[in-house]
Specification:
The chain has six helices and no strands. With 154 residues, the chain is mostly helical. It has one domain. Helix 4 packs antiparallel against helix 6 and helix 5 packs across helix 6. It starts with 10 loop residues before the first helix and ends in a 5-residue tail after the last helix. Keywords: Membrane, Transmembrane, Transmembrane helix.
Length: 154
């Protein structure tokens, strides 16, 4: 008796089963073959990790405040220049990096959860497909038995 249904697995399901998700280290070039790319990636990451801390923001605040007395002595224009060029740029840079790091961690967590959800759905769908295949086999056997028992109309 012919099969009721021929299951064809989606190519993406096979791809997900054979490879893990891309890691941040791979995207940053930390595992690159070229040593220059590796060095630049590690050095840039190191600088970002240092500058992207609240301690660095505090340090930059103190550093920027050293120039404030001279700016006040020179007048309002220089206070505005000091505020926009020294203080805001120095202090906001690490604070923005801290915020971006927090957002990136949240996005990474969501991406990991989504990947785990996709794996679970894929596994569930595979189990459902196995169950349906077994049901098809049982139904085919029952139909074959019914056809054998039924009186043949010639």
């Amino acid at each position: 008796m012919p099969k009721i249904y021929d299951y064809v697995r989606h190519p993406r399901a096979h791809e997900l089963a054979t490879r893990k998700p891309v890691t941040a280290a791979e995207l940053r070039g930390l595992h690159h073959d070229n040593w220059v790319v590796r060095f630049n990636a590690r050095f840039g990451l190191w600088i970002t990790l240092i500058v992207g801390t609240m301690w660095c923001a505090y340090l930059f605040t103190v550093l920027a405040l050293f120039a404030l007395p001279d700016a006040i002595k020179q007048g309002t224009y220089f206070v505005v220049v000091w505020l926009s060029s020294s203080f805001l740029q120095l202090v906001l840079l690490p604070i923005i990096i801290v915020g971006q790091n927090i957002q990136a961690k949240a996005a990474d967590t969501r991406a990991d959860e989504t990947y785990k959800d996709a794996e679970a759905v894929l596994k569930e769908a595979s189990m459902i497909q196995d169950h349906l295949t077994e049901q098809d086999e049982v139904i085919s056997r029952i139909l074959a038995q019914i056809q054998q028992l039924a009186p043949k109309a010639d």
